[in-house]
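Researcher: Please translate sequence to structure tokens.
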Amino acid sequence: MQTWLSIEEFSKLTGKNKNEIIKLCKEKKLKCKKNNEGIFIEVESIAKSLVPLQELQIIEKENSIAERAIGMLLALHEKVLMSKDETIEALKEENRFLKESIYSIQEVYDESKKTIQRLQKQLEICQEELEFCRKKYKLMWGRVLKKENKED
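Model: Translation complete:
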């Protein structure tokens, strides 16, 4: 797609007067077209007319260097994004593992708590039975001792 500027707009952009612009058009350094409204200059030809050929080549070389640098930066950026996604996925997996571990530890804790309560209850029962046996022993041996003391 070609873009055309009027000679006045071109003059404002370049700082050249109309005579210089017309001279460049006659020398075919600028692509021009003439119609009822005036003279128009193609935008793409501006760079070639204003910047010497050697400088354009240097700019093109620098552009290729810049393009390679930008391409390399984009590739590095893509790798960083991929590694970021991998890291996030690894962290999510680790979080799932930790969550499952916490749930299993909670289950073991609950079972241990129930076992402790059951053992405490059994201990209380055993202590009550032991106390009962002590009382019974005292009563039984107390009578025997009293009888022996009476016989002596």
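Researcher: Any highlights?
Model: The beta strands are 4-6, 32-35, 38-42.
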